[in-house]
Specification:
It contains 14 helices and ten strands. The chain is of the alpha/beta class. The chain has two domains: 160 residues, 3-Layer(aba) Sandwich (Rossmann fold); 187 residues, Dehydroquinate synthase-like, alpha domain, CATH 1.20.1090.10. Helix 10 crosses helix 11 and helix 11 runs antiparallel to helix 12. It binds nicotinamide-adenine-dinucleotide (NAD) and zinc ion. Zinc ion binds next to helix 11.
Amino acid sequence: LHTSSSSYDIIFGEELLENIHLIKAIKNIKPTKVLVLSDTVVGPLYANTMLQSLKQMDIDCQLYTVPSGENSKSLAVFQEVVGYMLEQGFDRKSLIIALGGGVVGDLGGFVAASFMRGIPFVQVPTTILAHDSSVGGKVAINHPLGKNTIGAFHQPLAVVYDMNTIKTLPKEQIASGVAEIVKHAHIHRPELNHWLIENYHKIEQLDNKSLATMLYKSCEVKAEIVSKDERETGVRAYLNFGHTIAHGIEGALGYGKIPHGIAVAIGMVSAALIGYQKGITPKHVLTHIIEINKALKLPIHLPESIDEQNVINYILHDKKNIGGQLTFVLLEELGKPAIIRGITTSEVLDALQQQKQL
Ligand code: NAD
Ligand code: ZN
């Protein structure tokens, strides 16, 4: 990936955890210390393998484990990690390796962005979804009033994707990750969805080669968009397709109650309905978005327990809203997103009511 601030490799393969010490980006910077940040599910599964490999570099490596789940993207956990690093004498030349899903990647990246005003970090994603979060340098934690509202742009030194880690990922998390790939397809490369449907069986079976191809194709879309607009002043905002409602759903249910990508899958249907109502999204695009979700076993309805008004309350805090009006990414055509401002809360409520009838 090339951005205006840096260039780095996204490496796909097998047994990369075992060989992390051979990754050039890590070897080259000769860190004083390494913090492997992981969570309580991923740490016990994979941290040891990685630490064994790092040992061969003769550097002080330490593991720090945070609770698994979205709640670890909090100021409290952020403070604990930074506190630990200060106590343990981490310095400006230390390295963070984020070993886990998007939560660990976002948290680890944000710690790296702020510790001593910024230290290097490497992303080692272990979920499908994290192909999206690990590429592009957006790092953040949540405030109780809004998701990802405390963050920075901080590019990793490298993204190292070991397909073998996907083997232990729960089914629902696979579906969640696939939803972000569907999003990349809808906004930029519609043919990718045909590939997904054709290869769905192999993906479900976690065939390493198919997984790597899928992740490569999706990272390509992400990298292409981010390289044009690293700091989201323009086209990068298209990546938020489906995310306004998704963040509303995640907020209304309570963080971590629904996998992020599952909320995005639902949010893409909402966005298609809003776009259709406004005469921006053609009927065939709306139908296509619903059909793709169905074909990939992704939901099209909001969870039943949810109060639509609560979703609206949350989206009023969305970063994409400027000057009090709701802003959405809507599709004018497959592969052709547009930023639409001035959407009213009653238009959104209407769409959410209609979504119930689908
Ligand atoms: P996650 O990190 O919480 O992982 C999901 C669950 O799977 C967790 O319980 C985790 O412990 C477990 N897990 C992870 N890897 C595993 C493995 N290999 N085997 C077994 N279990 C495993 O969630 P996620 O879906 O990876 O990421 C979601 C986060 O990513 C959200 O906070 C979202 O805001 C963020 N995100 C950020 C960006 C960005 O650009 N920075 C983009 C998209 C999403
Ligand atoms: Zn997302």
